[in-house]
Amino acid sequence: MSELNTNNRALKWFEARLPVVSFLDHSLGTKYPAPKNLSYMWNFGSLAGIVLVIMIISGLFLAMNYTAHTDYAFNSVERIMRDVNYGWLLRYIHMNGASFFFIVVYIHIFRGLYYGSYKPPREVLWWMGLVILLLMMATAFMGYVLPWGQMSFWGATVITNLFSAFPIVGDDIVTLLWGGFSVDNPTLNRFFALHFVLPFAIVGVVILHIWALHEAKSNNPLGIDMKGPNDAIPFHPYYTVKDLFGLGVFLIFFAYFVFWAPNYMGHPDNYIPADPLVTPAHIVPEWYFLPFYAILRAVPDKLGGVLLMFASILVLAALPWLDTSKVRSAVFRPIYKWFFWLFFADCILLGYIGAMPAEEPYVLIGQFATAYYFLHLIVLLPLIGWFEKPKPLPESISAAVSKKSKGGHGPVPANAPAQEKA
Questions:
Q1: pLDDT over 70 for what percent of the chain?
Q2: What does DSSP assign to residue 410?
Q3: Does the pLDDT at position 100 exceed 60?
């Protein structure tokens, strides 16, 4: 790592002992090379990191005023909303922040699927992303229980009971999660403690995720590696400015939901205090769990449904080997591109089915949608890679960018690749 170029003697003295600024400069600054053709679809990684920070800070202040006890939890949330200064704002930021966190991460994942960001040498980077997703799901589920409303209580009861499907150890796992023989005060205490700790575990995995990214370097819309200095530009200021613009657009949408539609993505039953004697007419998880909930319900057998639900995430870890094509980006894969959008539509359909009652025709549609989900990943993806004929790849990122910016006309810069000059 090179010495920081500065005339500030105090900063140079500090850097000689703890090179924080030079480390950031090499990791996210002028000395970190990034592909020169990254689109706004690459904003969602940094947006996810920013939302994570927002969630941790707002959650920290909420925890100062929350009481993790079944007799007081619901009322403590009402007190936060009514009596704590700007408590309503903190809670609405945290509530909607969870939904926007999943929106940003899901877009980030589908962008990776479209441009082949899971392919070598980025397998570990992809795995770290899936670990983050699993930790997010666990954190969000436990956080949804904390308000101790009707949907909190019954959602916790239904989801934790799923582990009882595992033979031999299932009942012991459920008892461990509950801290007793039903969802009660020990359960709430455990979920509150884990909900507070898990975000810091997410931060740790995010650091590993970024580390893996910097080792393998960023993918790009063309899906080809940087081949020289002409293919790269410094991350700062070019992409920091682009990320700031994306953040501004994101905050407009986020502010709309926080201030004008704070409960749009929530469930009205959660404003009713938890009652173990009254079962809600329709128990549904939060919207970001609905596709997996539909997969769970697609199998009549309880154990089979649980295994299939977990398999729907774990199968994504095998994508670097299931996708047999040597070409990363869907830009050059005409058949894969069509099947990608079909897979995307199937995931949306699963989300819709997950919100519907467990009755016909929704059960049958959910079974077909679940079957296609696994068919696409396990069968179609390898076959497409074997039989598809991709379009020819450009010689380099720089050649493709120069050609696009000039529309194929006009003089070519002297430092352009030989093929482009020809």
A1: 94
A2: S
A3: yes
Going from N- to C-terminal start, the domains of the chain cover 34-221+233-271, 284-393
Q: How far is CA 398 from the centre of its chain?
A: 30
CATH of domain 34-221+233-271: 1.20.810.10
Count of CB atoms situated within 10 Å of the CB of 398? 24
Least confident range from 28-32, 43-47, 166-170, 370-374: namely 28-32
Active site residue 242: yes
The dihedral sign for the CA sequence 77, 78, 79, 82: positive
**Quick check: pTM over 0.70?**
yes
Q: How many CB atoms lie within 10 A of CB 322?
A: 18
Structure-block tokens of residue 319: 């994508």
286 is catalytic: yes
Three-state DSSP class for residue 143? helix
Query: What pLDDT is attached to residue 121?
Result: 92
C-alpha closest to that of 117 among 50, 52, 47, 42: 42
Q: Which CATH superfamily is domain 284-393 in?
A: plastocyanin oxidoreductase (1.10.287.980)
Given 218, 312, 396, 402, the catalytic residue: 218
CA distance 206 to 271: 34
Confidence of residue 380 (pLDDT cuts 50, 70, 90): very high
Is 214 an annotated catalytic residue?
Answer: yes
- pLDDT category at 418 given cuts 50, 70, 90 is very low
* Residue 182 annotated to the active site: no
Is 282 annotated as ligand-binding? no
Question: Catalytic pick from 25, 99, 231, 243?
Answer: 243
243 has catalytic annotation: yes
User: Of the candidates 289, 294, 291, 250, which has an alpha carbon nearest to the alpha carbon of residue 267?
Assistant: 289
Q: Determine which one of 12, 69, 217, 242 is catalytic.
A: 242
